Amino acid sequence: VQVVESGGGLVKPGGSLKLSCVTSGFAFSMNEMYWYRQSPGKAREKIARIDTTGESTIYLWSAVGRFTITRDDAKKTIYLEMNHLQPEDTGEYLCRSEGGYWGTGTQVTDSP
């Protein structure tokens, strides 16, 4: 099983990033998928969730209206498009499958 996130980087307040999470080795289309964020000094929090159809999504309150989670079953990949980024969005972003497979994360850092 492989779960590999990418797309993080330095971003100024108000900027945008699109994260990707490419998977292999498990039945991707049968799994809900999630994005989490691990910020310095804080507990890991679930940012977004997408169901197996891609039609039902749920977001952390602070992400509503700014972040969009999508999936491409043919590519076994989920995405997190993030707009209007703020300093508090800084952290390691990880994806997880419903079955419990985690990636190692991609870092998003606020750039002054």
Description:
- This protein is mostly beta strands.
- The chain is 0% helix and 49% strand.
- The protein has no helices and ten strands.
- The chain has a six-stranded mixed β-sheet with strand order 2-10-9-4-5-6, with no helix packed on it. A four-stranded antiparallel β-sheet has the order 1-3-8-7, with no helix packed on it.
- β9 and β10 form a beta hairpin.
- The mean pLDDT is 96.
Briefly summarize what is shown:
The chain is an all-beta fold and 112 residues long.
Write the layout of secondary structure elements.
Blueprint: E1 2-6, E2 9-11, E3 17-24, E4 33-38, E5 45-50, E6 57-59, E7 67-72, E8 77-82, E9 91-97, E10 106-110
Parallel strand pairs: 2-10
Antiparallel strand pairs: 1-3, 3-8, 4-5, 4-9, 5-6, 7-8, 9-10
Give short descriptive properties of this protein.
6-stranded mixed sheet, 49% strand, single chain, 4-stranded antiparallel sheet, mainly beta, 112 residues
Radius of gyration: 13 Å
Question: How much of the sequence is in beta strands?
Answer: over 45%
Q: Percent of residues in helical segments?
A: under 10%
Q: N-to-C terminal Cα separation, in Å?
A: 37 Å
Number of strand segments: 10
Largest β-sheet summary: 6 strands, mixed
Q: SS-based structural class?
A: mainly beta
Strand order of the largest sheet: 2-10-9-4-5-6
Shape: globular
Low-confidence stretches: none
> Total helix count?
0
- Order of SSEs: EEEEEEEEEE
- Compute the average pLDDT: 96
